[in-house]
Design brief:
By secondary structure, the protein is of the alpha/beta class. The chain folds into two domains: 3-123 and 293-312, Rossmann fold, CATH 3.40.50.720; 128-289, Dihydrodipicolinate Reductase, domain 2. The chain is 34% helix and 24% strand. The protein has helices at residues 12-18, 37-47, 56-60, 74-86, 101-114, 128-139, 166-184, 292-303, 313-331; strands spanning 3-8, 27-33, 52-53, 67-70, 91-93, 118-120, 147-153, 188-199, 202-211, 216-222, 232-237, 242-246, 250-254, 275-277. Strands 8-9-10-7-11-12-13-14 form an eight-stranded mixed β-sheet, with helices on one face. Strands 3-2-1-4-5-6 form a six-stranded parallel β-sheet, sandwiched between helices. Helix 4 packs parallel to helix 5, helix 5 (101-114) runs antiparallel to helix 9 (313-331) and helix 7 crosses helix 9 (313-331). It starts with a strand and ends with a helix. The structure holds nicotinamide-adenine-dinucleotide (NAD).
Length: 332
């Protein structure tokens, strides 16, 4: 059954990463909204959409919509999601779910009242490497997680000379405020922050944390690396087990192999030696390792009323609460 979606926000992210994936899942862009007429007209041409609105309130009144999608920005995510829910429509929204944790809680309350799902676009959970890592943690014999180290960096591009890091926190740090506790399957316990800032707009943070389940870890985030380099790595430590995910696609599972040097018969043993995985970028297959495709696939099912384990507004609330806790420590 075709899902008719009304979409708010025809900016860079929607046009490049999200909208191209909708037709794969029989989602039809039934109506568009953007206050930027040129961006909306270009998107309408690309997808053959004839019903376009500058005001999201008008979009929500468009007849025949099954769901609302949006990639706009924090405050509009909050107000447009609540307005959509009040009309009984399920919502897919990009992160962040709101500008504040209180705002995200308002969206969650509206979702509960409407009994409709709100999906939040934490696509890092769907990146090929991260998904493999999580499946290894859940399905294998990894044992308890002892430690997690994560690194998520970006460039000063958007923050040059700008001492206000609100955008960095809301648009970037929010990802690891979801991803790392998701890997840990546990809430943060203690949290501490160290920072260095060589110039306005340039910030490097080291977060130290414990989890309620008893693990320790740290998260490195900052605006001091080039976007032309790999930006992310995750290390998950167990007892004689270690999962490493570099650049979201290179996965290694280290276990407990014997030394090789003194064994003339040394070989590779698939029960103890390191397992690795990398994608084949030369295959003529339309694979999306960043995770948008998997996210949209699950969103398509949930917006149709099916169940999937996927990031919801409740996860959005938790991520925003962790983020605000972190910001209070950074700014203390
Ligand atoms: N998950 C990811 O990897 C990822 C990557 C990039 C952006 N994002 C998220 O997507 C969202 C959009 O980011 P972007 O880079 O596309 O930004 P953008 O500025 O390119 O696009 C936002 C669009 O929303 C429109 N808009 C703003 N206010 C509006 C309003 N009141 N009514 C109607 N339209 C309005 C703007 O005109 C613009 O076209 C952000 O929340 C961002 O965090 C997520």
């Amino acid at each position: 059954m075709t899902l008719n979606i009304g979409w708010i926000g025809c900016g860079r992210h929607a046009r490049q990463m999200l909208l191209p994936r909708l037709p794969d899942h029989d989602i039809r862009l039934a109506a568009l909204c953007d206050r930027d007429g040129a961006a909306m007209a270009a998107t309408a041409r690309a997808y053959g959409v004839t019903d376009c609105y500058a005001d999201f309130g008008d979009l929500l009144r468009h007849p025949g919509l099954d769901a609302i999608g949006m990639a706009v920005g924090p405050e509009i995510h909050r107000v447009a999601a609540i307005a959509a829910l009040e009309r009984g429509l399920p919502v897919f929204m990009e992160k962040p779910p709101a500008a504040t944790a209180a705002g995200a809680r308002d969206v969650a309350a509206a979702a509960q009242k409407a009994r409709k799902p709100v999906i939040v676009g934490f696509m890092k959970r769907y990146s090929s490497g991260n998904r493999i890592a999580m499946n290894l943690l859940r399905n294998g014999d990894f044992g308890p997680i002892l430690g997690i180290t994560g690194s998520y960096l970006t460039a000063p591009t958007y923050f040059e000379g700008e001492p206000d890091y609100t955008g960095f926190y809301l648009h970037h740090c929010i990802h690891y405020m979801d991803l790392i506790p998701w890997f840990a399957s546990s809430e943060f316990g203690d949290l501490s922050v160290r920072k260095v800032s060589p110039a306005p707009g340039r910030l490097l943070l080291h977060l130290g944390f414990t989890t309620k389940a008893g693990a320790i870890g740290n998260i490195v985030m900052g605006t001091v690396q080039s976007r032309g380099t790999p930006m992310e790595e995750v290390r998950i430590m167990g007892d004689h087990k270690r999962i490493e995910v570099d650049n979201i696609v290179n996965v290694e599972l280290h276990r407990d192999p014997p030394f090789k040097a003194d064994n003339p018969a040394a070989t590779l043993d698939d029960t103890v030696d390191t397992l690795t995985w990398q994608p084949n970028f030369t295959a003529a297959a339309n694979e999306d390792h960043k995770g948008y495709s998997g996210l949209v696939a699950d969103a398509s099912a949930v917006l149709r009323g099916d169940n999937r384990e996927m990031p919801t507004i409740e996860d959005g609330v938790l991520a925003m609460e962790r983020l605000e806790r972190m910001i209070r420590l950074v700014e203390a």
